[in-house]
Protein backbone atom coordinates (compact mmCIF):
# COMPACT_ATOMS: atom_id res chain seq x y z
CA UNK A 1 0.00 0.00 0.00
CA UNK A 2 1.07 3.58 -0.51
CA UNK A 3 0.02 7.04 0.67
CA UNK A 4 -0.89 9.68 -1.89
CA UNK A 5 -1.67 13.37 -1.42
CA UNK A 6 -4.69 13.69 -3.73
CA UNK A 7 -4.36 17.48 -3.92
CA UNK A 8 -0.85 17.60 -5.39
CA UNK A 9 -0.33 14.01 -6.60
CA UNK A 10 2.74 13.47 -4.41
CA UNK A 11 3.43 10.00 -3.02
CA UNK A 12 4.18 10.35 0.68
CA UNK A 13 5.16 6.71 1.20
CA UNK A 14 5.53 3.60 -0.94
CA UNK A 15 5.40 1.27 2.07
CA UNK A 16 2.79 1.81 4.75
CA UNK A 17 2.78 -0.10 8.01
CA UNK A 18 -0.64 -0.21 9.65
CA UNK A 19 -1.04 0.18 13.40
CA UNK A 20 -4.71 -0.68 13.75
CA UNK A 21 -4.73 -2.99 16.76
CA UNK A 22 -4.15 -2.09 20.40
CA UNK A 23 -0.69 -3.65 20.54
CA UNK A 24 0.47 -2.24 17.19
CA UNK A 25 -0.68 1.24 18.24
CA UNK A 26 0.99 0.80 21.63
CA UNK A 27 4.34 -0.16 20.09
CA UNK A 28 4.23 2.25 17.14
CA UNK A 29 7.80 3.19 16.20
CA UNK A 30 9.22 2.71 19.70
CA UNK A 31 12.64 1.06 19.78
CA UNK A 32 12.99 1.15 15.97
CA UNK A 33 16.35 2.31 14.61
CA UNK A 34 14.90 4.54 11.87
CA UNK A 35 11.99 5.12 9.54
CA UNK A 36 13.13 4.62 5.94
CA UNK A 37 12.42 7.52 3.58
CA UNK A 38 9.84 5.54 1.57
CA UNK A 39 7.89 4.31 4.64
CA UNK A 40 5.14 5.56 6.94
CA UNK A 41 3.22 4.36 9.97
CA UNK A 42 -0.56 4.77 9.66
CA UNK A 43 -2.20 4.73 13.11
CA UNK A 44 -5.95 4.26 13.42
CA UNK A 45 -7.85 5.13 15.46
CA UNK A 46 -5.55 7.71 17.00
CA UNK A 47 -5.85 11.24 18.38
CA UNK A 48 -2.27 11.93 19.51
CA UNK A 49 1.24 10.51 19.61
CA UNK A 50 4.44 10.51 21.63
CA UNK A 51 8.04 9.88 20.64
CA UNK A 52 9.28 8.24 23.83
CA UNK A 53 11.80 5.45 23.28
CA UNK A 54 12.49 6.65 19.74
CA UNK A 55 15.92 7.61 18.43
CA UNK A 56 14.95 9.94 15.59
CA UNK A 57 12.60 12.80 14.67
CA UNK A 58 9.40 12.35 12.68
CA UNK A 59 6.80 14.39 10.82
CA UNK A 60 3.16 13.85 11.81
CA UNK A 61 -0.06 14.32 9.84
CA UNK A 62 -3.36 14.43 11.72
CA UNK A 63 -6.31 13.30 9.58
CA UNK A 64 -10.05 13.54 10.09
CA UNK A 65 -12.40 10.67 9.24
CA UNK A 66 -12.36 11.70 5.56
CA UNK A 67 -8.55 11.68 5.21
CA UNK A 68 -8.30 15.47 5.29
CA UNK A 69 -5.21 16.95 7.00
CA UNK A 70 -6.43 18.86 10.07
CA UNK A 71 -3.04 19.42 11.74
CA UNK A 72 0.64 19.09 10.92
CA UNK A 73 3.60 18.59 13.25
CA UNK A 74 7.03 18.73 11.65
CA UNK A 75 10.32 17.45 13.06
CA UNK A 76 8.90 16.09 16.33
CA UNK A 77 11.98 15.25 18.40
CA UNK A 78 12.44 12.03 20.42
CA UNK A 79 11.00 12.05 23.95
CA UNK A 80 8.13 14.45 23.21
CA UNK A 81 4.35 14.36 23.44
CA UNK A 82 2.56 15.45 20.28
CA UNK A 83 -0.31 17.88 20.19
CA UNK A 84 -3.89 16.68 20.42
CA UNK A 85 -6.32 18.13 17.89
CA UNK A 86 -10.09 17.79 18.33
CA UNK A 87 -10.86 16.55 14.80
CA UNK A 88 -8.02 14.02 14.56
CA UNK A 89 -9.19 10.45 13.93
CA UNK A 90 -6.04 8.96 12.33
CA UNK A 91 -2.36 9.83 12.35
CA UNK A 92 0.41 9.26 9.84
CA UNK A 93 4.01 9.24 11.04
CA UNK A 94 6.60 10.03 8.36
CA UNK A 95 10.36 10.54 8.25
CA UNK A 96 11.36 14.06 9.32
CA UNK A 97 11.35 16.46 6.37
CA UNK A 98 8.83 14.49 4.30
CA UNK A 99 5.95 16.95 4.78
CA UNK A 100 7.98 19.90 3.52
CA UNK A 101 9.56 17.90 0.69
CA UNK A 102 6.16 16.74 -0.60
CA UNK A 103 4.47 20.11 0.01
CA UNK A 104 1.65 18.68 2.11
CA UNK A 105 -0.58 21.40 3.55
CA UNK A 106 -3.55 21.74 5.90
CA UNK A 107 -6.74 20.75 4.10
CA UNK A 108 -5.02 18.31 1.70
CA UNK A 109 -6.63 14.88 1.39
CA UNK A 110 -4.43 11.83 1.93
CA UNK A 111 -5.44 8.47 0.48
CA UNK A 112 -4.19 4.99 1.30
CA UNK A 113 -4.05 3.02 -1.96
CA UNK A 114 -2.98 -0.41 -3.08
CA UNK A 115 0.25 -0.38 -5.05
CA UNK A 116 -0.12 -0.51 -8.79
CA UNK A 117 1.87 -3.36 -10.32
Automatic annotation (TrEMBL):
Classify the source by domain of life: Bacteria
Q: Which residues cross the membrane?
A: none
**One Pfam family recorded for the sequence:** DUF192
What Gene3D superfamilies does this protein map onto?
Protein of unknown function DUF192
Which InterPro entries does the entry mention?
A: DUF192, Saro_0823-like_sf
Q: What is this protein called?
A: DUF192 domain-containing protein
